[in-house]
Amino acid sequence: MKILALDSSAMVAAVAVMEDEKLLGEYMLNHKKTHSQTLMPMIKQILGDLELVPEDMDVFAASIGPGSFTGLRIGVTTVKAMAYALNKPVVSVPTLDAIAYNFPMSGYTVCPMMDARNNQVYTALYDWKENSLERITEYMGIPVTELVKIIKDGNKKAIFAGDAVQLHGEFLKNELGDSCRFAPGSLRLQRASSVAQIAYLKAQKGEFESSFDMVPFYLRKSQAEREYEKKLSNEKK
Length: 237
What we know:
This protein is α/β, with parallel strands linked by helices. It has two domains: 132 residues, 2-Layer Sandwich (Nucleotidyltransferase, domain 5); 80 residues, Nucleotidyltransferase, domain 5 (2-Layer Sandwich), CATH 3.30.420.200. The chain is 39% helix and 26% strand. A five-stranded mixed β-sheet has the order 3-2-1-4-5, with helices on both faces. Strands 10-7-6-11-12 form a five-stranded mixed β-sheet. It has a two-stranded antiparallel sheet with strand order 8-9.
């Protein structure tokens, strides 16, 4: 089973190709260029370097969020279009699951955290149990102070990953002390290979979707939507 997987949920643009559990190739770019500029050239490049064509793929997978509203739409739409054109199934992978999967068999609780602005993060907590990753909380969009309280109340030792580590690392260390660890830079951000690995596991269970069913997972409304609803509310007063 060959899988093409994308992640465009934040600044990172990432593409990977796996054949069953063998990683054939992975490209990632953490730079200021937009995903609309980078994703399709990266797909073309990796497939060309592997001497493959889109028709060779059995499954297309994407990180569906939470994350950047624009980035997620670009990644999801790209996968949906390719899968629809080729009549192939898709697999949706939550972004936080994929980041957590960068740390297989960790003895710590794994805490991916993505910047949600205004000192808030998209996050969830995960434990490895019997060689599988288990999410032990809901997906959350919460202030980082609330995340610290959850970890303290659960008496957890956590390893943190995601782009919010750079923003909140000092605060986390001050609050959690020795119960806090940070992922190395090479594993901290989104990796399309982790998206592909989870997609492979889901595909083995028959957890496919049609290209029409895949949608971004936003966790909360966009800033524009919130401002519009606030405007409507004020007009009714």
